[in-house]
Amino acid sequence: GDTVIGKNTKIDRFVHIAHNSKVGDDCVIVSGALLCGSVTIGNNTWIGPSSSIMNGVKVGNNCVVGMGSMVVKDVPDGTTVKGVPAK
Asked: How confident is the model at residue 1 (pLDDT cuts 50, 70, 90)?
C-alpha cells in the first residue's frame, strides 16, 4: 500500500520509511531512523536517531522513541521508550 506522511512532519537525512507506512502530523524523525514495512506512527511523535521500528508496529500519539532503540511491540499514546528491545 501507499506510504503516507502527515502535515508538518520533519524527516532528517538518512531515514528509511518502508512500504505501507503511515506517519502522523507534527512528527520528527531524526537521522538514521528505520521504519520497516506497515509501521504506523501517531501525531506529535519524536523518533530518535538510529532507532528501528519493526514491521507492523504501531507507535501512538505524543510518544518519544529514544536514540538507538529497537521497537518490537506497539507503543501506547504518551509513552517514552528506549533500549534494545525498547521498553
From this structure: confident
